[in-house]
Amino acid sequence: MARWLAHKNTYAAAGLGIIISMSSPKVWFITGASSGFGRALTELALKNGDKVAATLRKPEAISDLTAQYAIDTVLPIQLDVTKHEQVKAAFDRALAHFGRIDVVFNNAGVLVLSEVETMVEADARTIFEVNFWGAAFVTQEALRVFRDENKPQGGRLLQVSSGAGVVGIPGNGFYAASKHALEGLSESGAKELDPAWNIKITLVEFGAFRTKMLADNVKLLPHHPAYDNKALAGYQIRKYIRGTLVKGDAEKAIGQVLKLSRLEDPPLRLMLGKDGFSMVRDKLKGYSGELDKYEAWSADLDVEE
């Protein structure tokens, strides 16, 4: 997949149009490294000459990588992100092993498809435990490590969000809610940071890509017969996600994430995937129109002194 460009002392991710400088290999902390985006990024980072603390529930899932790379290059760490003490211990172990952590890819997540009305409470709570609380615990520890442990200070926190974190998705409401929550947390946290700490947060808003999350790892709940109408948006979303219409190439997207990790001035939000842009632009257009139309309703709502 890759080749060396010796005359430039650079590395090219062939086919992705990305050339990454090899002057300063990064140390990554990746959650959900067993499959999907997490696995793809672990592989690409290692090929790029970086080092990876690969966290996952079952370390044996990446035994092929640990056999291929030395222990000073890839460190598998068993981790359930919903357990805050485990998250702290995983960061401490990675620090003790590598000396610093440059980039955190906050990726672990679950997907359960259901209309809002028919979502099972246990599944809804699991979605939030992993997608929000797990991501929040990783966020807290990443900020602490970047500021207090790294010498010099600094680091990049890449939050795996989604187009569903910006726009509500029919048939996928609780997942969308968990990503909306992560968006709010991350934007607020980014505004709290002292620029002197050199910590940058980016919400990577993925569209639909061909990963195990949309294949083997998605849970599809039975829906109420009232939603059987094939013209309803929720029905169409299920058909799209579970069918062959998803065209996003996960490896190409992860190549852009690697490029993002090297930016000196990264964006707060980076949307990846063609399907998200029109969806978000339509929302912004509609929201802007509603703001203009109803702004006058707030003209006289202050307390009269």
TrEMBL record:
Q: Name one GO molecular function term.
A: oxidoreductase activity
UniProt keyword annotation of NADP present: yes
Write down a Pfam family by its short name: adh_short
According to the entry, every stretch annotated as the Ketoreductase domain falls at 26-200
**What's the superkingdom here?**
Eukaryota
Species for this entry: Coniophora puteana (strain RWD-64-598)
Give the UniProt keywords, A-Z: NADP, Oxidoreductase
Q: What is this protein called?
A: NAD(P)-binding protein
Q: Which family does it belong to?
A: Belongs to the short-chain dehydrogenases/reductases (SDR) family.
Keyword NADP present in the record's keywords: the answer is yes
Membrane-crossing segments per the record: none
Gene3D superfamilies associated with the record: NAD(P)-binding Rossmann-like Domain (3.40.50.720)
